[in-house]
Amino acid sequence: MVRRVKILRIALAILFVAFLALLGLSFTRNSQRQRAVSDPVTSPMRQGETPQLVAWAFEDVQTIGGRVVSRIRARRTMGFGSGWYTLEDVHLTIYRSGDQTWEIAAPEAQFQIDTRAAEAKGGVRISSGDRVRIETDSIDFDGTRLANRIPVRFLVDEWEGKAGAVDLNVATEHLRLHDGVEATRRIANEPPLMMRALEADFDRLSNEAVFRGQARIERQGDTLETEAITARVDAERRVLSALEGCCGVAFHLSSGSELASGSSVGETTVRGERFFTDVGPEGKVRAIFIEGAESPARAVLAGPPPRTLTAGQFRIVLADQGVAEIEASGRAKIEESGQTPRSVSGSKMVAYFDAARQRPTSAVVEGNLEYRDARNRATAHRGTFDFLADRVVLDSVRGSLPSIESDGHRLTGQKIELSQRAGLLRAEGFVKARFIDRKGGSTLERSGVFPSSRSPVYVNSDSVVLQQQAESAHFRGNVRAWQDENILLSKELKIEQGGKTLVAEGEVRAVLYNAREESSSSPVKASAETLTARRDERTANLRGGVRIEDQGRVLTSESATFFFDAAQRLERVEAAGGVEVAERAASRSGKGERLVYHVSRRMIHLEGSPATVTDPQGSVEGSEIVFDLARDRVEVLRGEGQTEATYRPEGSR
């Protein structure tokens, strides 16, 4: 493009100088074709003046070293005493090397032989054999500049359009189009670029064109506006190599174009201080970079809901149908307003678009990610924000686990998924959770299994699903939960109603240190298939293969229930179904159908039909057997509370 514009500017200078030189020489050398005016002849360009010389079918050919360099033709020429010459139906051909030519044609032209001022009018056409063309109604030449202030149509290399005026400085080879410029650049298999501005300067020496004053680029409905835009071409001046601009940049996506589905609310707009482009080898604009200055660059993304993206720089990646993605770097932050406001920030962010509908679909954030909403605050190294599915996914990178805090609770894992509107949290891989209320105590407090009102409850597992609205959590795989010294192990753990109900399932094992006075260091150990603790009832129910160990005493049954007092100490245990109790120290065991163990009173009541007790001295049976652990004796009752037998194990008498 630049090569052709340079040729154009040089050729125009040669062309108008040729007007002066060729016509002057022609009138001198070819006087045999001239004659004195005998009949009245007038020129529409020099009204009121009488010509002194008139020539019809004027033609002149100029040669240098035997080579034809120019040819000028006119239907009629006139010379006036004022020094002006006029030509009608004039056509000038300039021959250049390489079989290239320049052509100028106009219905009327005149020039001043002394001042070298010239004018062509009536529909001036300037063209070259290598696709340069200027069309206008008239143009003036003062010896240095070609100029007018009327509409011009032009084709310069790949730029084609119109302007309100033209000004060509022959000496500096500078072409200026002004009073409103529209230029279109067409690229094979690509949407055309439309350029608009108040004026445009083509500088052939630097291979660039500068569009100034309300400059605007349009591409398939997308627009970029700024104060000035510079277009550069390659060394051959045919392929676009760069576009850049400055001051008050605004890029608008075509949310209202025919490509849009109509489902978006508002439009996507990116604003900054300056921009530059990534242009491919064939002149295709692949990406637009928009930078901020004192304040960050800012993008407003089409909703719903409305989203604002700020960063030091944006890279807008273009696809055939429009924008494919927006990359943000330099502490990028996206804020989402509406009924559920939230924000995500990080070192770098890429927002992906549905190019046909021109609306964002998702964003990937990398480096120092931070997520916030009304209830949650999360950090991670990398994450994905799925706008359509309302989902935020936080990933671990190089051993750095993402974490999230919600209502004072804390959760970490290899992967965390959050859906704000659904109030859903998911985590998997090395899951660690800490439950603590805003006052410092756990929301699982005083459940018997976790009795403290001051200490947090910790849970490790392979995965977890938390329903924030329902205040529930479901841990799966290698669950380990603890508070202070109390420990609960299982395959699954469900926390419901904000900790009012706790359900452990699958190979449940519990170690409870709140069985008796705080001074005791001996825990109660329990195992079962399921454990259900209810805070309001102060109970913990065990089902399936129950086994309870307490100070060398082992209780097995099909089911059992722990009852806790107001201080969350274990008050009693009730068991049923195939009950067996064994005291290893006394070599004593009992069997029955039901059992009540009064922990604080240290009494065990074993019932059956009948219940039996066995020790090395033999065995006895009765409807109820009472183990008095404090006095180390056993009473056997046979109906209506009557004592059948009372004995102590051998060695304790």
Task: Give your account of this protein's structure.
The chain has 653 residues and is mostly beta strands. Helix content is 4%, strand content 63%. The chain has one helix and 43 strands. The protein has a 43-stranded antiparallel beta sheet that branches. A hairpin with a 5-residue loop joins strand 19 and strand 20. It is rod-shaped, with a radius of gyration of 47 Å. The protein starts with a helix and ends in a 6-residue tail after the last strand.
Task: Outline the secondary-structure elements.
Elements: H1 2-29, E1 35-36, E2 51-64, E3 67-80, E4 84-95, E5 101-112, E6 118-128, E7 132-141, E8 145-148, E9 152-156, E10 159-169, E11 174-185, E12 193-197, E13 199-203, E14 208-219, E15 222-233, E16 240-252, E17 269-279, E18 285-291, E19 297-301, E20 307-311, E21 313-319, E22 322-336, E23 342-354, E24 359-373, E25 376-386, E26 391-395, E27 403-406, E28 409-412, E29 415-419, E30 424-435, E31 457-467, E32 472-483, E33 486-496, E34 501-512, E35 524-534, E36 539-550, E37 553-564, E38 570-583, E39 588-598, E40 603-615, E41 618-628, E42 633-637, E43 643-647
Antiparallel strand pairs: 1-2, 2-3, 3-4, 4-5, 5-6, 6-7, 7-8, 7-9, 8-10, 9-10, 10-11, 11-12, 11-13, 12-14, 13-14, 14-15, 15-16, 16-17, 17-18, 17-19, 18-21, 19-20, 20-22, 21-22, 22-23, 23-24, 24-25, 25-26, 25-27, 26-29, 27-28, 28-30, 29-30, 30-31, 31-32, 32-33, 33-34, 34-35, 35-36, 36-37, ...
